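Bench log, entry 3. Co-assembly request; chain sequences pasted below exactly as received.
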Amino acid sequence: MSLGEFELIARLLRPLASGFPGALELGDDAALVEVPSDRQLVVAKDAIVEGVHFLPDDPPELVAGKLLRVNLSDLAAMGADPLAYLTVIARPPHLEDRWLEDFARGLADDQARFGLHLIGGDTVATPGPLLLSLTVLGLVPRGAALLRSGARPGELVCVSGTLGDAAMGLRILRGLAVPEELVPPLVERYRTPRPRLALGRALRGLASAAIDVSDGLLADLGHVLERSSVGAEIELARLPLSEAARGLPGARSCALSGGDDYELLFTLPQQHEGLLPELATRAGVPIAVIGRTTTEPGLRVLDPEGRPMTIERTGWRHF
Amino acid sequence: MSLGEFELIARLLRPLASGFPGALELGDDAALVEVPSDRQLVVAKDAIVEGVHFLPDDPPELVAGKLLRVNLSDLAAMGADPLAYLTVIARPPHLEDRWLEDFARGLADDQARFGLHLIGGDTVATPGPLLLSLTVLGLVPRGAALLRSGARPGELVCVSGTLGDAAMGLRILRGLAVPEELVPPLVERYRTPRPRLALGRALRGLASAAIDVSDGLLADLGHVLERSSVGAEIELARLPLSEAARGLPGARSCALSGGDDYELLFTLPQQHEGLLPELATRAGVPIAVIGRTTTEPGLRVLDPEGRPMTIERTGWRHF
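Structure output for the full assembly:
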């Protein structure tokens, strides 16, 4: 038997609102949110579709985690702190209550981990695939948000963690054969993004621009360059690759164009270069300098011999 | 040819963000929203699915209007002023660009009418039906939000406008034969909700509880009673019916249980009864007193002879 909407909300979702008075126990027309006068609200909204962004047999807890973390990654890229979120669950007839229970448990785990609460949303029936949408709210000190538009020529182009692991993990899920011990770390990178919230926070007042790497390094750096009206030159040899991905065919291609890494890509004025080790320590993630911004527009990738490379694929589009 | 995601955003949606600096031209990871220190943020999120909440041949402008207005109605029920919204468009392969163009035009018209801006969202591909989700943000003076939980025994139960028209409009769209001149006003009530924002605003500090009638009078009044821990008695003869619906079979049943009217249902302390004519004038909509709240729990409907009626259907659920 399928849970009705009201029972679903009451039993699975209402506990996720507990501890946030403005959520009004998910029992009112809308939620109330306090924004301290020295803060700005930061809002982002994403959606994922079964069969497109996740697979029918993906564990529901991980789907919940990915949905929440992808949105938290947007907050990280703005330098914001998580506050609250709203969900839409568009439920196909075939979906078991059990799936929703596990999904809610995944939300519960991650909202505790990242310090935010469910405050509202909607559940609807759909004859189509399961669709999940999430709106995340965060807070940032007034005027301190990291934007894509602040990069200036002559700054360092930096990225956290390692690149290409998630794309490699997806290739493995789709059948790429790799040594057995490499499967878990790479697949986990694809399934469980790590939003770099501590790094985003640490970069306030330092980074001139930031974005999270969701569409792929080239595409996302391209967004920063376009919004900032600068160019950039990056060096292939400097791309941070994980131990797991390093030896696999296509690792550099995944690092350049693979999506879903959810690392932070940011530009840093040269004068702050000496702070990078401390920033990495505070954020708990390595930071690599992969190039610099230029007055000349466009994005150039230099091969290990310093020669400009021709890049064909600049990340993927959603449709 | 189908527009890619970036082109779609640039061409159709970006103009809707113009005039709201914190939308960052829909070109950043998230939007920035200022909340004045004497205000609270009000947030609601809804979704509608093709074939469930709207029909494939419904005019796209009207679908856009309904999506936005349904959410604005939630703001009205909280006594909030509209500020901004975010959308998710889950796009099936068959959907023409033309549909999206008309949809965007519908959003443009209504956001100008109601004074809010698009500030973000997501577009994704889906193999299923078109799904549209909207998150609306509003502002309310601190502490002045109208909640469902504030009703006390002995207050007036009031409702704006007329009830049952939208449900009758839907019956007509599904084939109910009615005199020709009744079709436009009833179908329009179903397709184009009128969020009672001015009334919500006028009720701040006066109404003890409020909700918008989306699931049907009985169901929505039930929500207020449950959240407020009171009962109510309403009189069938007092339900406000439109000229168009009045003579049709099932008019009272539609008024009791039909959804989608998006009128405001509220409770008003007896001492404010004398303000009702002025409230109606300020809000530009009639207000009817349909009953009163009681200490005795539960909802009782009295027939024209004052006898309690047995009610079978108390509104519909979403799945």
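The two ends of chain A are 36 Å apart (CA to CA). Confidence is low (pLDDT under 50) at residues 315-319 of chain A.
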